[in-house]
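Structure in, sequence out. Go:
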């Protein structure tokens, strides 16, 4: 396969985007992919960090905050909080050190021990960041909850995770937690970020502000074994019940190294990660990774708004921007006129994660924003970016790129039921270019999860021999680029073909009327499954029987009759998780009248911008 033409399958029809280096006058951190991979070791990457003084181990918060606060970056802005109704709030590295020390001291004063679990249910206000980093300093385990979760998902996670402390707002406590209090016997302390006084009726509900103000600004991080647990993250629940993945302090080695190679973070950068800190991306890359690089991180406390987002990129002079396909598709839907009104010349690097990034979106970035979008792949379980498109490397639109330095990836063959094939010597690896199977990673990278909460058996099932099996189906082309096919649970068998919805959706999105699409299989006695597509239309397009037939014809022409959708329907709002992923299992359940399963992460409409108010 020549590098100009990766058109092995219908979804791969776009031309390679070549890079000229350096872009924006800044040399990428990773210049030669092969050479960097060959030379890289995780030991070397650990050496890029400081470690705690006197050989007392490795602590995420020390690497993210204290080591910068003790050096020339002390007065640099670490976190800048933007809002749509107030002035920005800045915290320098020195201020962040003092404030997180206070938080750690508050925990100590409450009798919280290393290993105890501290949860947060609040929006993107500064106290949330203090809670994450202060908890890590105190060697307790931090678990974020997405601020729009209702009472049941909150209860489920707090009890499963044995939360001793909850950091939240007065409004969220009243609406989501108060009525559960009797059912949360292990929850000993509720710290309310915006209360002026402790709750007179409930001694466990305390005002955080006065506690912080009374706490000393000095705190010495205790000895931290790199294998000490640090973070508990629940998965998105896209395919079923959310699982709790446990991560350790050593993960910071991967957070830092991936920030360097996959996000191309440079110490003078301004970085904006749009993911909510309620999810793993918002913690690993919205907080930890950029801070370990000493960059200035933008936190936007308001919800998505295309006009504001472009203004933020321009006014904050964002260098590196990490976002998600769902947001990019919303920007595409908002049209090309808005970005044209803004000077985006500072923007050097754009990356995306969370779902497959349609080739159409990569090319749109190149044409409309002047920068292509770099897709990368990882999971809650992997703790950090595993497969990526790099600043210096060409992009094959639709490909998630190549494994990170330090990451060995492989593809494991699957049977008819998508179950991995395992022989006496371990899993059966696929080597033929284009062949599909489960993406596997050789175990042992620093941010690999160390367990599923209360589910050792499930954890054990993720590993075969040396390999962690991700559950995602992929293929690899002859040059080593990986292509996402689908999640194990979303791929569809139709007329003897195994098809991933992503490829079909990407083709439908090439039709000018379509901005978003989801494809599911509907059981059929003859074909096994027939394909049904749900599409969302762009501005200026109206749904009609004519358009429906046109899309069916478009699909048949581009995909061939065997894998073209048999039905196309309009969907104004595709069901999505709160982290923005299309929930095909729910579309399928609704279509077939089946039980809808766990809906705790279903996005149920626009989230009010300042719900706490
Ligand atoms: P659950 O495991 O509860 O069903 P989830 O897998 O969606 O939820 P996350 O860990 O947040 O929870 O998401 C990781 C998954 O997201 C990956 O396994 C993959 O299916 C998908 N994903 C993430 N990034 C990409 C990408 N760049 N391309 C394709 N898929 C991606
Ligand atoms: Mg998953």
């Amino acid at each position: 396969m020549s590098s100009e033409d990766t058109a092995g399958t219908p979804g791969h029809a776009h031309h390679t985007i070549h890079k000229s280096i350096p872009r924006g006058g800044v040399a990428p951190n990773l210049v030669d992919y092969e050479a960097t991979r060959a030379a890289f070791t995780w030991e070397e990457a650990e050496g890029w960090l400081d470690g705690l003084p006197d050989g007392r181990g490795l602590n995420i918060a020390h690497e993210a905050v204290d080591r910068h606060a003790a050096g020339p970056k002390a007065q640099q802005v670490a976190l800048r909080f933007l809002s749509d109704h107030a002035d920005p709030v800045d915290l320098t590295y020195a201020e962040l050190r003092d404030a997180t020390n206070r938080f750690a001291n508050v925990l100590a004063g409450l009798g919280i021990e290393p290993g105890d679990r501290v949860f947060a249910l609040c929006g993107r206000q500064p106290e949330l960041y203090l809670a994450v980093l202060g908890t890590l300093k105190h060697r307790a385990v931090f678990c974020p909850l997405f601020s729009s979760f209702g009472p049941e998902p909150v209860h489920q996670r707090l009890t499963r995770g044995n939360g001793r402390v909850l950091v939240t707002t007065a409004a969220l406590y009243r609406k989501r937690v108060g009525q559960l209090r009797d059912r949360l016997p292990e929850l000993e302390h509720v710290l309310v970020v915006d209360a002026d006084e402790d709750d007179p009726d409930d001694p466990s509900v305390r005002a955080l502000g006065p506690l912080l103000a009374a706490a000393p600004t000095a705190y010495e991080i205790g000895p931290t074994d790199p294998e000490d647990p640090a973070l508990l993250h629940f998965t998105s629940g896209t395919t079923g019940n959310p699982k709790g993945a446990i991560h350790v302090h050593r993960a910071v080695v991967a957070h830092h190294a991936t920030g360097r190679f996959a996000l191309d973070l440079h110490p003078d950068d301004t970085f904006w990660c749009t993911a909510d800190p309620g999810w793993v991306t918002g913690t690993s890359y919205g907080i930890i990774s950029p801070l370990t690089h000493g960059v200035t991180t933008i936190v936007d406390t308001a919800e998505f708004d295309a006009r504001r987002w472009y203004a933020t990129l321009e006014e904050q002079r964002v260098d590196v921007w990490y976002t998600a396909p769902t947001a990019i598709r919303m920007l595409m839907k908002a049209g090309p006129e808005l970005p044209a009104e803004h000077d985006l010349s500072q923007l050097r690097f754009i990356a995306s994660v969370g779902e497959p990034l349609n080739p159409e979106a990569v090319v749109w970035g190149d044409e409309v924003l002047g920068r292509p979008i770099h897709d990368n792949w990882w999971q809650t379980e992997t703790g950090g970016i595993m497969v990526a498109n790099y600043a210096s490397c060409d992009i094959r639109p639709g490909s998630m790129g190549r494994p990170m330095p330090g990451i060995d990836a492989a593809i494991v063959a699957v049977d008819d039921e998508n179950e991995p094939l395992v022989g006496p010597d371990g899993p059966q690896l696929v080597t033929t270019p284009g062949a599909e199977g489960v993406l596997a990673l050789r175990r042992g990278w620093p941010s690999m999860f160390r367990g599923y909460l209360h589910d050792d058996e499930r954890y054990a099932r993720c590993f075969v021999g040396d390999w962690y099996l991700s559950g995602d189906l992929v293929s690899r082309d002859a040059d080593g680029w990986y292509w996402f096919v689908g999640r194990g649970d979303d791929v569809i068998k139709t007329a003897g073909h195994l098809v991933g919805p992503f490829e079909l959706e990407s083709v439908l999105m090439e039709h000018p009327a379509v901005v978003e699409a989801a494809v599911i299989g509907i059981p059929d006695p003859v074909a096994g499954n027939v394909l049904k597509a749900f599409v969302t239309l762009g501005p200026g397009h109206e749904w009609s029987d004519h358009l429906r037939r046109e899309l069916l014809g478009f699909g048949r022409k581009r995909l061939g009759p065997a894998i073209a959708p048999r039905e196309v329907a309009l969907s104004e709002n595709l069901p999505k998780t709160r982290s923005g992923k299309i929930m095909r299992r729910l579309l399928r359940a609704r279509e077939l009248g089946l039980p809808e399963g766990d809906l705790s992460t279903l996005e149920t409409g626009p989230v009010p911008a300042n719900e706490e108010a």
